[in-house]
Structures are given as structure tokens and as C-alpha cells.
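C-alpha cells incoming
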């Protein structure tokens, strides 16, 4: 209980610090790009963390993130963009509509034991195609004409567009991370881990597998759709081709696998690395090389660090924090580029350190120091 209380206190402190960033940016006259970069990172952290609640915890591989995201986008696009609803009134329905669609899918696939493994993955992928066809057919949703969100007013208390997007995505991201953490530390999480390891054994031990899988799928769909509802504002003009594309699920899978699916923090680390690399490549005019570089990086890391880089970083947290700080300090002193580039260099340094195998790491004399009792025993052995 104490560790959980400390973790929740840490979440609250992090939220308050991040909530103050728009005020700090205004006072220090930061470029608006920084807020855009941060709330886009919040978007990817939310999507990958919600995906990991199902796939990482239970082992049911899903391509459905694009479907939940698309349902959320079109819910706010139809209600706020076409029907004139208040955006804040339409936003919760984006999450609940995705939740309902996800639970309806779960009622079918989780009741039929034959729909597991690769069949489950293909089923979730097909859901996005079906929803895209429905949106394209019905004029009330899209009808092939798209939907405008540029004229949807935002509440004044949220500020201008960038600060408003920042605050909304921050709240949703923190809710997602707190939920992922609580599931990870709860009986539900242990049940999902048992399902991931061996579902038949878990069922034999009394784990309510159907209920737990439905809970994981519901959380995955809800937060994916809720963030999609906010992201409709960033898209501006919503189209079926852009919303129900394979891009969202593929990036989410890459981010989660890179960071590590066995811990709730893995997708956070993977999202920051992948998004920062993609953003910097795009800004440098190398957007055509994004997929080549990220694909090669993923292959390398999967072969070298199968558990994901977060767990290895956590084992070497002192060296990781020191290296991160040194690279940031050096780039501030010797480099005049933006803070995002400095952040990228630090992340790449951490990546390179994570690639060092454990045996080589120990040979570099970076293993833990012996305790006083161990040192005394060694001296006694030498004296004898």
C-alpha cells in the first residue's frame, strides 16, 4: 500500500508540474512548437499505453487501436462538428462509444476459444475496415465527404488552441497511465499476466478469464477512443482514409514493443523515443527514411533486448540518468539547436547504452558494489 501511495503521489506531482508548462511557455515566450510537440507525445503515450493494457498484459495481440481511435474521432466529429454539440459534452461519448464497440467485439471473440492468437489479431484488424466502410456509406457520419472540426469552439477556460490541446491530452494521458499502473499492481493485472503465460492453466486456477479480458479490452478501447475524440481537433478535416489507416496501430505496436510490453512504463519510453525520432527526421526533411530507420532499430533492439529497453534502463538507472544529464548538458554548452534535438541526442545515448549486453556491462565494472558484509567475508577468505 505504501508503494502504491507513493506512486500515486508521484503521478499527482508530475501532473501538476506538466500542467504549469503552458504558463511557463507563455512567460518565457517559448515557440508554440514546443507545446505541439509535447501534446503529440501525450497522444502517442496514451495510445500505446492503452494498447498495452490488453496486448502486453494479457498476450492477446491486437490491431484494433486504429478502430478505437477512429470511433473516437468520428464521434466528436459528428456530434460537435455536424450536430453542434458542445465539444466537452461530446468528448466523453467518444470514449464510451469506443468502449461499447470494443465490448461488443469482446463478447464474440472471447466466447469463442477458436478466435485466439493470430485469428484474434486479424479480427481486430478487420473491425477497422468494417467501421471505415460504415462511415463512408452513411452520410450522417461521413458519406465520403469528410467532416470539418475547424469551426468547433473550445471553452474559454482552456485557453487558446495549443494550450487547450495540451491540457486535454495531458489529463487523458495521466488517467491512462494511472489506470495502467493500477491494473499492473492489482489482482486484475496478475490475472491478465496468468492469461498471457497460459490461459488454460489460469482458468484451471480459478481466474475469471472472460471477465478479465473484457476489462482489459474495455480499458484499451475507452482511452484510445477518448484520445481520438480530442485528436479530431488537431486533424481539423476528418476523412475515412486518414482516420482508419494502419498507421496508428503499427506505430503503437512499434512503440510498445520497443519500450517493453511487460511493464506499464515500457510504452511510455518507447513512445517518447519513436515519436521524437520521427518528428526530428520530418523536420530535417528525411521523412522518407523514417520507416527504414525505425524498422532497422526495432529489428536490432528485438534481437538485442527482447524484454524491451525499459527494464534494462531500470536495472541501470544510475548510469542512465547520469548519461542523460551529461548529454543534455553537453548539447546545451556546445550545440545551439532546439531543446527537442537535445532531447533526441540524449535518448539515442540511452538507446546505445541499453544495447550493451549484461555480461559486457558487468565486465565494464558497472555491477553493484559489494556490501560491507561481503567485503568482510572476502577479507577473511584472503587472510585464511
Amino acid at each position: 500500500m505504501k508503494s502504491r501511495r507513493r506512486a500515486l503521489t508521484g503521478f499527482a506531482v508530475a501532473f501538476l508540474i506538466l500542467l504549469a508548462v503552458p504558463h511557463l511557455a507563455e512567460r518565457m515566450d517559448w515557440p508554440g512548437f514546443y507545446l505541439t510537440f509535447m501534446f503529440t507525445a501525450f497522444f502517442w503515450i496514451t495510445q500505446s499505453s492503452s494498447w498495452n493494457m490488453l496486448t502486453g498484459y494479457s498476450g492477446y495481440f491486437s490491431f484494433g487501436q486504429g478502430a478505437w481511435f477512429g470511433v473516437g474521432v468520428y464521434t466528436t466529429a459528428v456530434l460537435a462538428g455536424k450536430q453542434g454539440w458542445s465539444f466537452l459534452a461530446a468528448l466523453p461519448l467518444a470514449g464510451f462509444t469506443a468502449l461499447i464497440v470494443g465490448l461488443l467485439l469482446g463478447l464474440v471473440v472471447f466466447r469463442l476459444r477458436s478466435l485466439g492468437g493470430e485469428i484474434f489479431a486479424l479480427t481486430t484488424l478487420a473491425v477497422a475496415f468494417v467501421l471505415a466502410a460504415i462511415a463512408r456509406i452513411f452520410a450522417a457520419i461521413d458519406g465520403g465527404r469528410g467532416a470539418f472540426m475547424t469551426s468547433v469552439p473550445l471553452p474559454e477556460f482552456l485557453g487558446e488552441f495549443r494550450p487547450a490541446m495540451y491540457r486535454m491530452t495531458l489529463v487523458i494521458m495521466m488517467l491512462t497511465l494511472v489506470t495502467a499502473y493500477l491494473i499492473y499492481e492489482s489482482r486484475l493485472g496478475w490475472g491478465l499476466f496468468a492469461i498471457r503465460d497460459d490461459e488454460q492453466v489460469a482458468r484451471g486456477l480459478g481466474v475469471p478469464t472472460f471477465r478479465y479480458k473484457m476489462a482489459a479490452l474495455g480499458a484499451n478501447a475507452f482511452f484510445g477512443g477518448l484520445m481520438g475524440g480530442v485528436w479530431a481537433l488537431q486533424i481539423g478535416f476528418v476523412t475515412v482514409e486518414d482516420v482508419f489507416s494502419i498507421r496508428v496501430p503499427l506505430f503503437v505496436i512499434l512503440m510498445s514493443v520497443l519500450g517493453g510490453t511487460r511493464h506499464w512504463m515500457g510504452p511510455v519510453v518507447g513512445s517518447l523515443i519513436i515519436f521524437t525520432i520521427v518528428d526530428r527526421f520530418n523536420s530535417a526533411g528525411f521523412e522518407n527514411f523514417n520507416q527504414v530507420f525505425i524498422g532497422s532499430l526495432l529489428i536490432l533492439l528485438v534481437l538485442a533486448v527482447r524484454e524491451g529497453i525499459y527494464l534494462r534502463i531500470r536495472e541501470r538507472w544510475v548510469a542512465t540518468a547520469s548519461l542523460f544529464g551529461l548529454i543534455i548538458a553537453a548539447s546545451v554548452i556546445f550545440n545551439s539547436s532546439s531543446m527537442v534535438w537535445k532531447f533526441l541526442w540524449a535518448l539515442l545515448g540511452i538507446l546505445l547504452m541499453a544495447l550493451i549486453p549484461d555480461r559486457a556491462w558487468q565486465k565494464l565494472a558497472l555491477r553493484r558494489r559489494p556490501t560491507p558484509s561481503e567485503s568482510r567475508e572476502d577479507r577473511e577468505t584472503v587472510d585464511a
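note: Residues 246-365 form one domain.
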